[in-house]
Amino acid sequence: MLLIISNVNQYDSKWVPAKRAAKKKKKVTKRGKSKVSGGQRKAQKSTSKTGCKPPLQEEVNKPAACGSGGASEHYDRWGQTMPVEILVKIFRLVVNQNGAIPFLCRVSQVCQLWNSAAATPFLWQSATISHCWIEPGKTQLPKTELRIKNTVRWLAENRFSQLRELSICHWKHHVNYVVEVISQFCSLLTSLKLTYCAGMSGEAFQNLGAGCPLLESLNVQYSEVQMEGFVNFLETYGSRIKTLQVTYGLKSDKTLSAISKGCCPELKLLEINTKLDSGFCQLPVCIQALQNGCPKLQVFRMLNVTLLPKMARRGASCTSGFPQLEELCLATSSVSFVKDEDLRTLLHSSLRLRVLDIRGCCRITPTGLSTLPCRDLECLYWGLYYSNDCMTASKKGIHLLTKKWNCTLRELDLAGQPFSSEDLEIAMANLAFGEGCGVLKSLNLCGTKISASALRPVLLQCSELSYLNLSSCRYLPRGLKKVYRSQADIHQLLDNL
């Protein structure tokens, strides 16, 4: 939420208290006597009876004196003597929790001390500007547009000198202006996030690259940007970018093609997601070319985007892979074309892999997963939430995975997998009696054929288990098919078993 700072102009950055209104004169009647209200008549009558004068309204509203001076003097003295460092630390705690805007804009209007504390550049290293004057997308009056631009410029000139991270949310107008102002006054900017914004042109991207030489993180998810200008920005300034997050569109293949050609050699995180109403999204990806273009990639996510492996050219058939990759996410709620060969091509040199999310990838087999080179996998998500049993490539062999990673697995998701009850019993025994049985914290067996005899050893040996999903497990007794979200609930389940 963006707040207009009405007490500050471009020439004065200090807070100025508002002037007190003049007291209203009493109404005088024709005879020259002041008009007396009914409440004052009652007060005069009570005075005549008790012999004491009633306090005036000004005396009632006046605070009690403290020491030799009045309360107002006491408050002023407190405001002048309190160390500003303490106030800055208090503001820092609030900013870390709720953000700099509008909190710092509001407290700066309290007094001069709070204004000087709120103007500390250290508090403005991260800010989020969202729309607050009118609903996004509606027509704006000229005065409103002027106030918006003036506020943004004032913040950039007077508060954003040490800005590192900026988020702009729900801006349908003036996005180019905001980016232009930020490019002029925020040379230390390292991260920019645009959420549900529209209208950012190629010129704005060029200004951003030229004015912010330290920019290394760019997030334009759920925003409408000029794709040609965005690709040109990556080709010109992509060597600085380490984190890139985009949303699938009609021209997403151009962005991925530019990255695969090596315009972002320092890229460490690449995420491509979709909108909720996008439906089936298919994106051709040449795995070998992407490995050549991003050799330092650590996190690769394609959320609900169907990866379509594309044949590599002759020169890109042999690559060094992703040697620094730690997280791979290919989760989808629709049809997945990824097979064991594609996954092996992606991860043939990823020895540091810790998180593997292949939910919905029904064509991958346990045998193919067991041949991956990573030995310290901590999270494996392999739930089939929207797949049919006839689409799965294999219905046995899950014990191979629990045997390989029983020492390191902390989270395991096998929801909807059609493995047999005997196979699951062997797999659970590997988790329960392995060397790292106390590491497992989360287990999702929703919709599987797990039995009570196979589940009991895991509950006994895995003392750190705090999440267990047994909903729709038809091989379990009634009353036990639910989600357990704490260790106390899991201990109670063990007693019931």
Fold and architecture overview:
By secondary structure, this protein is of the alpha/beta class. Among the domains are: about 80-125, no CATH class; about 395-495, no CATH class. Helix content is about 35%, strand content about 15%. The protein is built from 18 helices and 18 strands. It has helices spanning about 40-50, 55-60, 70-80, 85-100, 105, 110-120, 140-160, 175-185, 200-210, 225-235, 250-260, 285-295, 340-345, 365-370, 400-405, 420-430, 450-460, 485-495; strands at about 125-130, 165-170, 190-195, 200, 215-220, 225, 245, 270-275, 280-285, 300, 305-310, 325-330, 355, 380, 410-415, 440-445, 465-470, 485. The strands form three sheets. Strands 1-2-3-5-7-8-10-12-13-14-15-16-17-18 form a 14-stranded mixed β-sheet. Helix 7 (about 140-160) links the parallel strand 1 and strand 2 (about 165-170). The chain starts with about 35 loop residues before the first helix and ends with a helix. The model is unreliable at about 1-15 and about 40-70 (pLDDT under 50). It comes from Lepisosteus oculatus. This is F-box and leucine rich repeat protein 6. One of its GO terms (cellular component) is SCF ubiquitin ligase complex. InterPro entries: F-box-like_dom_sf, F-box_dom, FBXL6_F-box, Leu-rich_rpt, Leu-rich_rpt_Cys-con_subtyp, LRR_dom_sf. Keywords: Ubl conjugation pathway.
